[in-house]
Amino acid sequence: QVQLVESGGGLVQPGGSLKLSCVASGIIFRAADMGWYRQAPGKQRGLVAAITSGGTTSYAQSVKGRFTISRDNAKNTVYLQMNSLKPEDTAVYYCNADFSRVVDGPPSSWGQGTQVTVSS
After folding, report:
1. 91: closest CA among 108, 112, 107, 114?
2. pLDDT of 57-101, one tens digit each?
């Protein structure tokens, strides 16, 4: 059974930092392209950062230079280091595992989400 479990969210002041973690089970983690998405109230879910199975990273323009995505295949974990947080970063953050580049790979999977609130 595929399971993605996020942690590390919380309340932080503007300018602060948080590190999100997503632990995967039930998948061949090293073969997955992993992503962090976020969804604010009344808005669509959107991609924040992604890291391919080979380690190539990409970021939404709004978080470039502030957020860093990384992965540890030995721990089946993907991380999102978030620095210089702004109130507009407030959202539920979701972890995603995608195998669309894998022949006969499993469907995409999502975690349950972790709330990040940036407020003074």
Report:
1. 114
2. 999 999 999 999 999 999 999 999 999 999 999 999 999 999 989
Per-residue b or e along 29-52, where b marks 16 or more CB atoms closer than 10 Å to that residue's CB = beebbbbbbbeeeeeebeebbbbe
Structure tokens at 118: 């940036």
Quickly count: other Cβ atoms within 10 Å of residue 114's Cβ. Answer: 22
8 A C-beta contact, residue 9 and residue 82: no
Q: How far apart are CA 54 and CA 111, in angstroms?
A: 22
Q: What is the pLDDT of residues 41-61, one digit of tens each?
A: 999 999 999 999 999 999 999
Interatomic CA distance for residues 95 and 110, integer angstroms: 6
Spatial distance between the Cα atoms of 82 and 85, rounded to a whole number of angstroms = 7
